[in-house]
Amino acid sequence: MTPTRTNSPVLVVGTGLLGTSVGLGLRRLGVDVLLRDASPSALRLSVDYGAGRPAPAVRATDAREADTPRIVVVCVPPDVAAEVVGQSLVAWPDAIVTDVASVKSQPLQQLRDAGADLRRYVGSHPMAGRETGGPLSGRADLFIGRPWVIATHEDTTVHGLQEIEGLALDLGATPVPMSADDHDEAVALISHVPQLISSLLAARLVDDEHDASALAGQGVRDVTRIASSDPTLWVQILAANGARVAKVLRRFAADLDEVAGALEGVDEPGARRRIAEAIAAGNDGVARLPGKHGKRREFASVTVMIADRPGQLARLMTDIGDAEINIEDFRIEHSQGIEVGLVEILVVPEARAKLVDELTKRDWRIAA
To answer: Is the pTM of this model over 0.85?
Structure first.
């Protein structure tokens, strides 16, 4: 087995998407994983998929050495995270306990108010997920290449920090130490507000009286992709970070109001400039987002038309590989009403001409 920084066993409490993914990732490395969940069916599914073995129903004082966790990873909804962390700190007095809730300030304060031993608590948050949850959505590679925030606080010990950083590294993530407050400010902007904006825009489609959604292309799909998220979970997340989210939303609303005013009086002096500046500011914002390998770089795009039948996408990728061209990213869009797909291939700018030439030679149709 590959040497790991994480010692066996690890107890994972909560076998949804993140808990099952943690278990699958650690099991792939040979780490012994114990699983616990309030839902027997969720636990059984996670076990059946290979994320670990059921944790014995014993007290810490009665547990065998092989069943005594070195690390406890709490993967439960945000509104009960502090409670379960507190219970775990008491049940396993020699373990380091972390939680993966997407809000860090509230659980930390609740644990502090309850008098918990914060020396053994290190909150964390892997910046990874999917639109669907539950054990069936778990993936061993979910965290590879993703940031994993380690929410340090004044009582964080070197041992605790090393244990959770090692866990993140073993799962392929990149540890990012931050305070709980800084983390919550960051996710309000890059996660919580985007969820609300996506949901609110998608909700406009409900009142679509002209069947405009039938004309939808990749743009509206991109913006509303995360709108299918679980409302119950998101109410918990947003409630725990409400003030920070509201602050960003107020600024966004002010920008929207200003642009809407410019559009209503588009022939007024300065109106077109205000609209252009809003779009240009968006260009600047997108440029700040890290791309492949964390680098910020512009890529060139080539759109290829493929028949919507088995094997076509695989053949396209094989042909690009045979031409020794590296794909930086790609997106797929299906044309409305015809069995044709549009595959947008992103490459470094200097490779674009070669890609077009090689695909043309292989009889692929390049969309203008």
So the answer is: no
